[in-house]
C-alpha cells in the first residue's frame, strides 16, 4: 500500500496561525487527493491510526476521510468513489478505522465513530458490512469502559446517518438492546450512561417494534424514568427529550404511563433547571400538537390533553411567571420555561378550545394591573398564547368588556410590557379581528396603533404585524367592495407605516422594522377598498421616486439600497394591480424604463423588477409595449434563477390574458424557452409547473397560430408530464411532492383543454387525434380514488371526456 509521506506535515499546517501557510497546506492536500485518491485515503488512514501523531493531525485525518467518502464537496469525480473501490482495500481501511475506536483521545474517537457511521450509511443499505452492528452491540457490553463507550457512540452516529428502513428488524433490535442495557443509575457509569442516552435518543425511531412488546416497552420506559431521577443534569435533559419523542412516536402507548408522565413532567417544569423545565413542558406541547393533527385528520385520539387540561393549565400559569428577563434587558427575547409555557398554552388551547379560557383569564384579570411589571408581562403572555383556541363569539364576549384596559397598556412604563401588548393585539387581529373592528373600538385603537408605531423598534415591530393582520382580515372576499373597516384610516395608516419604514434606530438590532413596515403596507394596499383607490393612486409617484433613489447606492449603501428596492418594488406591484388602470401610457412607459434601469443597474434580470413588471401588466393590461421589456423577459425564462424563471412564466401568462389573440405575434419569443424549461431534467419542478400554465395560456389565447407551430411539441410534453403526474406518493410520505403532483395533474388537464380549444383546422385535428387515446386513458385514471378527485373535479373530468369523444371518437 502506497502513502504520501508529506501528508502529515500538511495536515498539521491546516491549523497554522499564518493564513498563507494554511491555504498552501489545503491546496497540497487537494493535490494529493486529485493525483491519487486511493493513495490519499490510505495515507489519511495511516496518519489516523498512528497514536504518536498529535491529536490535531489525527482529527483532521478522520474529518477528511469522512468528507471524502461522503463526497461533501459534491465533486462529480468522486461520486460513489467508495462503492467503486475494491473490496480488499475497503476491508483494510475499515479494520483500521475500527481499531482507532480504541484510542485514548476522546475527540479523535468521536470523529472516527462519525466516519465509520458514514461508511455504514453507504454499505448497510447495500447489504454490506452486515456484521458491524452486531459487533458494536456486543462491544457495548465489553469489560473495557473505553471500548464500550466507543461502541455506544458509534451506534448513535449510525442511527443518525441511517433510516430505520435501511435495517432489518434484527439489526434494529441489536441496537436498541445494546443502548438500553447501558442506561444505568450507577453513579460510577455516568459518562457511559450519558453516551448511551444520547445514542438512544437518536435510536428511538428504530425501537417501534420493541414498543409493541409489553415487557420490552415497560423496561425501556422504566429506564427513561430512572434517568430522570439522576443528579447529572445533561442526562436528565436528554431523558426528557427522549420522553418528548416517545410521545410523538408512540402516541398510543402513552396511556400505560400517563400518570407517571404527569408526575415527572410537572417535577421537571417546576425545577430550577431551565433546560429540564423547558423539555418537561415541551412534552405536553408536542402531545397537544399531535392530538390537534389527529383531530384534523379525523384519526383516533386518546384525549390525553383533555384528561389533564385544568391541572396542566395551572402548571403552565405557574411556569409562565418564571421570567428570565431583567429590568435592563428590554431588547432580550424571552426564552426557557416561561416561553415554553406560553407555547404550550397555545398548543393545548387549539385542542380544548373554550376550556382553556377560565383558568387563563382568571390569571390575567388578577395580574394585568399588578404593580410588578413581570406579573403584567406574564399575564399578557398567557392571554396572547390562547387566542387561537377559543371560538370567536366566546372570545369576543369576554375580551371586549376589558379591551380598554388592554389598549391603555400601550402607555405602560415598562417597554417589555408595551412590546407584549403589541404582540397580543397582533394575535387578536390574526384570530379575532371582530374584536378590533367593533365600531366602538376601532376609532379608538387605530390612533393608538399609529402612536405606538413611533415607540421603540421592538414595540413598533409588533404593531406593524398587528396592522398587517388587521388589513388582511378587513379585505373580505369581494375585491371590488366600496369600503371596509380601514377605509377611513387608509391615509394616516399608510403615511405612518411609510415613515416608519425609513427609521434608522433599529439598525444593528435583531428587529427589521423596514421589513415589518413594508409587510404591513403591502397588506394595507392589497386589501384597500375601492373608495381608497384615489388615495392609493396618489402613493404611486412617491414610491416610484424612492425606487429611483435606490439606484444611487452612495446614499444608503449597496445592501440597504437593494433591500429597500425589493420592498418598494413589491409595494409597487400591489399598487399597480389595484389602480394600474388609472396609469396613462406615458407613465406606464416610464415605469417600464425604471424597471429596465433596475435590470441594467444590477447587470441581470432581478426578482424585484419582475414583480413590479407583473403588477404593471395586471393593471395596465394590453396598453404596455412588450417590445420595451420583451428581451429581458426572455432572458429571465432562459436564466438559472428559479424564482425569476417562475416569475417570468407568470408574466407570460399575464401578457397572454391581457393581449388575447394579439399575443400570437410574440409566440416565437416566448414558446421556445417555455418548452426548454419543460424539457430540462435539471429544471426546478415548480418552475416547470408555471411554464406549463404559461404554455396553456398561450395556446388558449393564440389559438390557431399556436397550433400551426407548437402543437406536436406541446402534446408530447403533456404526454410525458401525464405519466409523471401519476406517480404514487402519499401526503404523509412526502407532502411537498404530493401537493406538486396534485397541482401538476390539474394543470395538465387545463392545458389539454386549452390546446384542444385552439385546434380548428382538419390537419391539426388529425395530429391531435393521434394522442387522444392516451389522453382518454389519462383522464379516466384521474377518476380513480388513488388521486383523490373531488366531486366537482369528477364532473369536470367527465365533461372533458365527453368533449373528447364527441370531437375525435364520434
TrEMBL record:
<dbReference type="InterPro" id="IPR001494">
    <property type="entry name" value="Importin-beta_N"/>
</dbReference>
<feature type="domain" description="Importin N-terminal">
    <location>
        <begin position="25"/>
        <end position="103"/>
    </location>
</feature>
<keyword id="KW-0653">Protein transport</keyword>
<dbReference type="Pfam" id="PF25574">
    <property type="entry name" value="TPR_IMB1"/>
</dbReference>
<dbReference type="GO" id="GO:0005737">
    <property type="term" value="C:cytoplasm"/>
</dbReference>
<keyword id="KW-0677">Repeat</keyword>
<dbReference type="InterPro" id="IPR016024">
    <property type="entry name" value="ARM-type_fold"/>
</dbReference>
<dbReference type="InterPro" id="IPR040122">
    <property type="entry name" value="Importin_beta"/>
</dbReference>
<dbReference type="InterPro" id="IPR058584">
    <property type="entry name" value="IMB1_TNPO1-like_TPR"/>
</dbReference>
<protein>
    <submittedName>
        <fullName>Importin subunit beta-1-like</fullName>
    </submittedName>
</protein>
<dbReference type="GO" id="GO:0006606">
    <property type="term" value="P:protein import into nucleus"/>
</dbReference>
<dbReference type="GO" id="GO:0031267">
    <property type="term" value="F:small GTPase binding"/>
</dbReference>
<dbReference type="InterPro" id="IPR011989">
    <property type="entry name" value="ARM-like"/>
</dbReference>
<keyword id="KW-0813">Transport</keyword>
<dbReference type="Pfam" id="PF03810">
    <property type="entry name" value="IBN_N"/>
</dbReference>
<keyword id="KW-0963">Cytoplasm</keyword>
Amino acid at each position: 500500500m502506497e502513502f504520501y509521506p508529506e501528508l502529515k506535515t500538511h495536515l498539521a499546517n491546516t491549523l497554522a496561525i499564518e493564513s498563507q501557510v494554511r491555504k498552501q497546506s489545503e491546496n497540497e492536500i487537494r493535490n494529493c487527493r486529485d493525483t491519487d485518491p486511493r493513495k490519499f485515503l490510505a495515507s489519511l488512514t495511516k496518519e489516523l491510526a498512528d497514536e504518536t501523531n498529535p491529536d490535531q493531525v489525527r482529527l483532521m485525518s478522520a474529518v477528511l476521510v469522512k468528507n471524502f467518502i461522503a463526497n461533501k464537496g459534491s465533486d462529480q469525480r468522486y461520486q460513489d468513489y467508495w462503492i467503486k473501490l475494491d473490496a480488499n482495500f475497503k476491508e483494510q481501511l475499515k479494520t483500521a478505522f475500527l481499531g482507532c475506536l480504541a484510542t485514548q483521545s476522546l475527540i479523535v474517537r468521536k470523529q472516527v465513530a462519525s466516519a465509520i457511521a458514514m461508511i455504514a450509511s453507504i454499505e448497510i443499505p447495500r447489504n454490506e458490512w452486515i456484521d458491524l452492528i452486531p459487533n458494536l452491540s456486543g462491544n457495548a457490553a465489553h469489560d473495557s469502559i473505553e471500548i464500550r463507550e466507543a461502541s455506544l457512540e458509534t451506534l448513535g452516529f449510525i442511527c443518525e446517518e441511517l433510516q430505520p428502513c435501511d435495517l432489518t428488524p434484527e439489526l434494529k433490535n441489536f441496537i436498541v438492546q445494546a443502548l438500553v442495557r447501558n442506561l444505568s443509575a450507577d453513579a460510577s457509569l455516568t459518562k457511559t450512561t450519558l453516551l448511551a442516552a444520547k445514542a438512544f435518543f437518536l435510536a428511538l425511531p428504530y425501537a417501534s417494534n420493541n414498543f409493541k412488546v409489553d415487557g420490552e416497552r415497560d423496561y425501556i420506559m422504566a429506564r427513561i424514568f430512572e434517568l430522570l431521577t439522576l443528579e447529572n443534569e445533561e442526562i436528565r435533559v436528554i431523558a426528557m427529550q427522549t420522553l418528548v419523542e416517545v410521545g410523538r412516536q408512540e402516541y398510543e402507548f402513552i396511556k400505560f404511563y400517563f400518570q407517571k408522565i404527569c408526575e415527572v413532567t410537572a417535577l421537571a417544569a417546576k425545577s430550577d433547571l431551565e433546560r429540564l423545565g423547558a423539555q418537561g413542558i415541551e412534552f405536553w406541547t408536542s402531545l397537544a400538537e399531535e392530538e390537534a393533527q389527529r383531530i384534523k385528520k379525523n384519526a383516533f385520539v386518546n384525549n390525553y390533553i383533555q384528561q389533564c387540561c385544568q391541572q396542566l393549565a395551572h402548571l403552565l400559569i405557574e411556569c409562565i411567571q418564571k421570567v428570565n428577563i431583567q429590568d435592563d434587558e428590554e431588547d432580550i427575547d424571552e426564552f426557557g420555561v416561561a416561553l415554553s409555557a406560553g407555547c404550550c398554552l397555545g398548543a393545548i388551547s387549539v385542542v380544548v378550545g373554550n376550556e382553556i379560557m377560565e383558568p387563563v383569564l382568571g390569571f390575567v384579570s388578577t395580574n394585568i394591573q399588578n404593580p410588578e411589571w413581570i406579573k403584567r408581562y406574564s399575564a399578557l403572555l398567557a392571554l396572547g398564547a390562547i387566542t387561537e383556541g377559543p371560538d370567536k363569539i366566546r372570545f369576543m364576549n369576554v375580551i371586549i368588556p376589558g379591551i380598554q384596559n388592554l389598549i391603555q397598556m400601550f402607555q405602560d412604563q415598562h417597554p417589555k410590557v408595551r412590546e407584549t401588548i403589541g404582540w397580543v393585539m397582533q394575535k387578536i387581529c390574526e384570530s379575532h379581528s371582530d374584536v378590533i373592528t367593533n365600531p366602538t373600538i376601532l376609532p379608538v385603537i387605530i390612533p393608538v396603533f399609529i402612536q405606538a408605531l413611533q415607540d421603540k423598534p421592538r414595540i413598533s415591530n409588533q404593531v406593524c404585524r398587528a396592522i398587517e393582520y388587521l388589513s388582511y382580515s378587513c379585505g373580505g372576499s369581494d375585491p371590488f367592495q366600496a369600503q371596509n373597516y380601514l377605509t377611513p384610516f387608509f391615509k394616516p395608516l399608510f403615511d405612518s407605516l411609510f415613515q416608519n419604514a425609513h427609521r434608522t434606530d433599529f439598525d444593528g438590532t435583531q428587529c427589521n422594522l423596514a421589513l415589518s413596515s413594508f409587510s404591513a403596507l403591502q397588506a394595507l394596499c392589497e386589501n384597500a377598498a375601492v373608495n381608497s383607490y384615489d388615495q392609493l393612486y396618489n402613493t404611486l409617484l412617491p414610491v416610484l421616486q424612492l425606487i429611483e433613489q435606490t439606484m444611487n447606492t452612495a446614499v444608503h449603501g449597496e445592501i440597504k439600497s437593494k433591500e429597500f428596492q425589493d420592498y418598494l418594488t413589491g409595494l409597487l406591484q400591489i399598487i399597480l394591480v389595484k389602480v394600474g388602470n388609472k396609469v396613462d401610457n406615458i407613465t406606464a412607459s416610464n415605469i417600464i424604463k425604471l424597471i429596465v434601469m433596475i435590470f441594467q443597474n444590477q447587470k441581470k434580470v432581478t426578482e424585484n423588477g419582475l414583480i413590479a413588471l407583473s403588477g404593471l401588466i395586471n393593471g395596465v393590461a394590453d396598453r404596455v409595449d412588450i417590445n420595451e421589456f420583451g428581451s429581458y423577459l426572455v432572458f429571465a425564462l432562459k436564466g438559472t434563477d428559479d424564482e425569476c424563471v417562475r416569475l417570468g412564466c407568470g408574466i407570460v401568462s399575464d401578457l397572454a390574458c391581457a393581449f388575447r389573440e394579439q399575443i400570437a405575434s410574440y409566440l416565437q419569443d416566448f414558446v421556445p424557452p417555455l418548452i426548454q424549461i419543460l424539457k430540462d431534467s435539471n429544471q426546478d419542478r415548480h418552475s416547470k409547473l408555471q411554464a406549463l400554465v404559461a404554455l396553456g395560456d398561450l395556446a388558449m389565447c393564440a389559438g390557431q397560430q399556436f397550433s400551426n407551430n407548437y402543437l406536436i411539441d406541446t402534446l408530447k410534453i403533456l404526454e410525458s408530464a401525464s405519466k409523471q403526474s401519476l406517480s404514487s406518493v402519499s401526503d404523509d410520505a412526502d407532502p411537498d411532492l404530493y401537493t406538486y403532483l396534485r397541482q401538476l395533474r390539474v394543470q395538465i388537464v387545463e392545458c389539454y383543454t386549452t390546446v384542444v380549444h385552439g385546434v380548428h383546422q382538419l390537419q391539426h385535428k388529425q395530429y391531435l387525434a393521434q394522442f387522444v387515446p392516451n389522453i382518454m386513458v389519462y383522464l379516466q385514471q384521474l377518476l380513480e380514488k388513488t388521486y383523490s378527485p373531488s366531486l366537482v373535479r369528477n364532473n369536470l373530468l367527465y365533461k372533458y371526456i365527453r368533449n373528447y369523444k364527441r370531437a375525435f371518437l364520434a
